Amino acid sequence: MMEQAHPCGGATLVTLSFALLFFSTFTHAFSSAAYPELNHVKPRHSRLLRSAVQRETPTSQLSEIWSPLESQGWKPYVENKPSALPEKSEGYIQVFLDGGLNQQRMGICDAVAVAKILNATLVIPYLELNPVWRDSSSFLDIFDVDHFIDVLKDDISIVKELPEEYSWSTREYYAMAIRETRIKAAPVHASAHWYLENVLPVLQSYGIAAISPFSHRLSFDNLPMDIQHLRCKVNFQALTFVPHIRTLGDALISRLRYPRGSAREMGSNYLQEVTSAVDSKNAGKFVVLHLRFDKDMAAHSACDFGGGKAEKWALAKYRQVIWQGRVLNSQFTDEELRSQGRCPMTPEEVGLLLAALGFDNSTRLYLASHKVYGGEARISTLRELFPLMEDKKSLASSEERSLIKGKASLLAALDYYVGLHSDIFISASPGNMHNALVGHRTYLNLKTIRPNMALMGQLFLNKTIEWSDFQDAVVEGHQNRQGQLRLRKPKQSIYTYPAPDCMCQA
């Protein structure tokens, strides 16, 4: 083919055409790979989805799924007599907590326990800047600090900040060089004896010890029962969110139970709204779904989520940048990972799970989640199954959300609060929020569905399964995964399995 000179000179028509084609293709590929949420994500389980959309749930199944848990013979432990504080403190304990809200929550409980073991004064824990969510919220921004101190006043001494003589002990001070007052070598799940041997001498020498890192740094086993009870007291009684989170949370719960219009129509007078709603006898029920499907989770799982080559490229690049490509599961195929239950469920898949369990299209579903990877394209199938799905944005006005906008920890706190007060809670895959709420709701004997990840992975691999067989398998596989109390085993977390350490038989 002969090239024709362009009338204006310079590039030929053919050359220009190829350049434009290349630029267009490159731009599309870059946009698709960098922003897979711009792609149209096709349903991966179309046959099941069509049947699920047309489902009719028997009244008996609806009644059973919504029925609250019967008493399981356990109740929260309540101490008969508070312990007396020693006359003299050994010094000040500082802890620096990384991770997200729920990992920090567990660290706070452990910090109180360590302060008790050492007979030290606890400085309100310092929350590190989260590298993923970029949230700088402090303890005082998230938790009711006065309530925290008051509940624990008979157990340990707590101060909001260090006295002037120790004001040099800051995060910046420890970042600059090795310091004798910093404890850097605390092993994961350290014993009480380790702290007495390694931290107490530092306290006695300098009057202060800063422990960093401090994540999962206290054992769940072989501790005195009063220390275990104290951890429970912190988690279930002392840690409450700041008033504006609780107030907004109550408003969202009210709007889920008594739907009366959009957030804009309701305005911001949620105190009056919540108070008036309490007298109503027509409270509706709702489910909270923690849809743990953000980019971080999707990349770390090394699974295929049906977004095509662009999504695979984007996740592989993200994996390389964040973890230098080191992802444990990457050595397995997608089929192997799914059959072992190692793949987080997509919004479509968790919607099919809920539909199979018996939730119909009149179910009020609250979506507790950070930004969903894939955006609305991924959520659309879930919304098709549950058209009454709500979230923070749909239930609260921009004015009401102004105090938490852009604050990942406060957004997570609001979701935690609503999740704790829901009729049913379910998380799309295990994680810190799942573990924390499973434990908290077990403590209160509330219904919580724990997805059988291996079963669901195997069912979704079967592309010819009929809806009736899928539904039967899901119902059978989740009969004993709806809040039935499980006693903690050695090495398991006291915060996920509160019995028997935090509870006693009724």
What's the quick description here?
This protein has 506 residues and is of the alpha/beta class. Helix content is 45%, strand content 9%.
Describe the structure.
The protein has 506 residues and is an alpha/beta fold. It starts with 12 loop residues before the first helix and ends with a strand. Strands 2, 3, 4, 5, 6 and 7 form a six-stranded parallel β-sheet that branches. Strands 10-9-8-11-12 form a five-stranded parallel β-sheet. Helix 14 (295-301) packs across helix 15 (308-323) and helix 17 (347-357) packs across helix 23 (467-477). It folds into two domains: 46-67 and 242-429 and 447-482, no CATH class; 92-238. It is built from 23 helices and 13 strands. Helices cover 45% and strands 9% of the residues. It has helices spanning 13-34, 46-53, 59-66, 101-118, 139-142, 145-151, 171-176, 192-198, 200-206, 225-238, 243-257, 263-266, 270-277, 295-301, 308-323, 334-339, 347-357, 375-385, 392-395, 408-420, 432-443, 453-461, 467-477, and strands at residues 74-76, 92-97, 121-123, 126-127, 157-159, 182-183, 208-211, 286-290, 364-368, 389-390, 424-427, 447-449, 503-505.
